[in-house]
Amino acid sequence: MTSSPLTRSRPQQTYWATRHSDPPLRRTVSTSWRRFTRYATRWLSFLGRLQPPTIPPSPYAEQLNKFADYLRLERGLSPRTIEIRCHSLREFLARLAKAGLRLDTLAGGI
């Protein structure tokens, strides 16, 4: 007596009938809040109801612009390189300001 395809698949049927599925991924409150905030911000911006925050001008904005012009005109660097170097300089100046120091007082000892 040969077994039919139905009797051969009985262990597989039992496995699928009794298996425990993985629980669905839980979203934490913070994940949901971040997602809601992101969508709400985009929607309100689209409607023109949300104005971007104004960024106060950097105390060294003029010097940064001159530095970027120098890199572009005299050194002939690419726009991406200029962007990276200006970003690094902005970070340095921000740390300097956070420490309560000024750029003109640093070179005073030389």
Question: Would you write up a description of this structure?
Answer:
This protein has a domain at 61-103. The chain has 6 helices and no strands. The protein has helices spanning 5-8, 10-18, 29-47, 61-73, 79-98, 103-106. The longest helix is centred in the last third of the chain and has 20 residues, at 79-98.
> N- to C-terminal separation?
101 Å
Low-pLDDT residue spans? none
Count of DSSP E strands? 0
Please state the overall shape, judged from the principal axes of the Cα atoms.
Answer: elongated
Taken as a percent bin, the fraction of beta residues is under 5%
Note the run of SSEs as H and E.
HHHHHH
The main pleated sheet reads as: none
Which oligomeric state applies? single chain
Radius of gyration: 31 Å
Helical fraction equals 55-70%
Number of helices: 6
From the helix content, strand content and strand pairing, which structural class follows? mainly alpha
- The residue-averaged pLDDT reads 82
TL;DR?
By secondary structure, the chain is mainly alpha-helical. The chain has six helices and no strands. It has a domain at 61-103.
